[in-house]
Amino acid sequence: MEAVLTAAVALLDEAGQSALTFRALASRLGTGVGTIYWYVSNKDELFDRATDHAVGGILTAVEELQESDDPIADLRAMAVVLFDAMMDRPWLAAYFMRNTDVQGHSLRLYDKLGRQTLRLDLTPRQRFHAVSAITGVVVGTAADLGAELPQELLDGDVDRVEYLSRYAETWRSLDAADFPFVHEIADEFAEHDDREQFLAALDLTLAGLRLQAGPRAPKDNATKSDPTANGSRPTP
Amino acid sequence: MEAVLTAAVALLDEAGQSALTFRALASRLGTGVGTIYWYVSNKDELFDRATDHAVGGILTAVEELQESDDPIADLRAMAVVLFDAMMDRPWLAAYFMRNTDVQGHSLRLYDKLGRQTLRLDLTPRQRFHAVSAITGVVVGTAADLGAELPQELLDGDVDRVEYLSRYAETWRSLDAADFPFVHEIADEFAEHDDREQFLAALDLTLAGLRLQAGPRAPKDNATKSDPTANGSRPTP
DNA sequence: ACCTGAACACCGTTCAAGT
DNA sequence: ACCTGAACACCGTTCAAGT
User: Fold this and answer.
1) A38, A86, A182, B209: most buried by Cβ count inside 10 Å?
2) What backbone torsions phi and psi does residue A99 show, to the nearest 5 degrees?
3) Contacts of A131 in chain B (CB under 8 A)
């Protein structure tokens, strides 16, 4: 079992999603395809277990983080670790946190994140939504990366900067009156850095969360929280 | 071409991602598989074009929205329209905004969204990041929905509430000391509504954006913006 | 309990051949 | 210019048969 998962992860690392087939996995393990079906009941489960196997490593990295006195800063640090792991392994995003029945490490990681929200002045529902929002930003951005790479880039015919600037070129050539925004950010797009983009999205979410969590200054635990300003908020 | 795309969208609507095959599409159109390859060079492009075809409808819905004096409220309204369309068609999220070469409607929609950020006191880069963050929330949450449905649900063996409460049951049975957060939100999860969860995530992002856009009160255009507090922010 | 691999049904894609 | 469908290489999954 252990061997099956490490081999599966290796295949995914080497050549991405499409490289993980029962046949490829079997031949790497030196066995028949049927063998794998003894450990795993279908391909979805294979992906789930391979993903969780990789999440194991992320979990230990997250557990090594020092807890600060600012829960939101801690959430940020964890999200960054998670995102960086997904940049290394773009295939991770697709199956991350699906089916926690099988994904024990993922559930632990989810709890690790959520525990920080317990330190904030929020309702259970707000906590649930906050963690979902944060994992959503991580997975959403990372899933884009996994899908973003077209053939040309993987084949090495074109490098990333050329690819992006060709896009920007097309965008600049559009009618500025018709596409004012696309025109405005064409240059930004050409030079954009995925990690920076992720951090920007994450920080918007965290800023919103900080606002929601109440008036206490970020790292100031001396001030008692204002009971009139607890987290409850009318549903939009 | 038009007929190919409407047939493709119909297949996707009826039975999801996996139902769109060249053979199924050909037989629905009463032709051979080869015919489709004359209109489209591979399956990715087929998905891209089918997605953009559907986005056409979303675009007109978005264009019918009235512009208010609050750009952030307008962004919110557009995001909600987009999300609702994706709840109707969970297959949309997977290919949305990939390859705007082929997706003319998507590019227009992207510009529509971005135009609202032009009304905010932000740098081009912040505008670019803001729109990416917002579409990320929409697509990220919607992609979850598309993937979330396991076999049991599609087969109708189990309905949604039973499925969720079975999960919650498992979560409650975990050691509360080991999984304090999962324990805390088990009930929330059992009753969670996807749309509400989306709105919560969106509102966190928008709250962050409002903060970033400067000190002006949301709907107050009388106050001159404070030049010392423009949107620039040190990169984290 | 664990392994094997031929067999089945189904893909995307190509291409020589047609109108 | 547009259509056709057999053929190819490759999937996931099953299962009778082995140890």
Assistant:
1) B209
2) 55, 75
3) 181, 185
Using a CB-CB cut-off of 8 Å, the residues of chain B touching A231 are: none
The 3-state secondary structure of B73-99 reads HHHHHHHHHHHHHHHHCCCHHHHCCCC
Structural tokens at position A206: 């965290």
What pLDDT digit, counting tens, does each position of B149-200 carry?
665 565 566 778 888 888 899 999 999 999 999 999 999 999 999 999 999 9
CB A138 within 8 A of CB A82: yes
| DSSP letter assigned to residue B176 | T
- Provide the angle, in degrees to the nearest 10, between the axes of the packed helices B104-117 and B71-88: 150
Nearest alpha carbon to residue A212 among B208, B233, B212, B75:
B208
What is the average pLDDT value for chain A, to the nearest integer? 88
Interface test with B, best of A63, A101, A129, A202 (most B CBs within 10 A): A129
- Look at residue A128 and tell me whether its pLDDT is greater than 80: yes
Q: How many CB atoms lie within 10 A of CB B102?
A: 17
**And the tokens for B32?**
């051979």
Nucleic strand C within 7 A of Cβ B124: no
Backbone angles phi, psi at A53, to 5 degrees: -60, -45
- Is B61's pLDDT higher than 50? yes
What's the pLDDT at A101? 84
Rounded to a whole number of angstroms, the distance between the first and last alpha carbons of chain B is 47
What span, in angstroms and rounded, lies between the C-alpha atoms of A42 and B59? 39
In angstroms, how far is C14 C1' from B37 CA? 10
Token reading at B1: 């071409």
pLDDT (average), residues B95-119? 93
pLDDT classification of B125: cutoffs 50, 70, 90: very high
pTM, two decimal places: 0.89
More confident residue, B155 or A107: A107
Among A90, A122, A102, A174, smallest CA distance to B204 is for A122
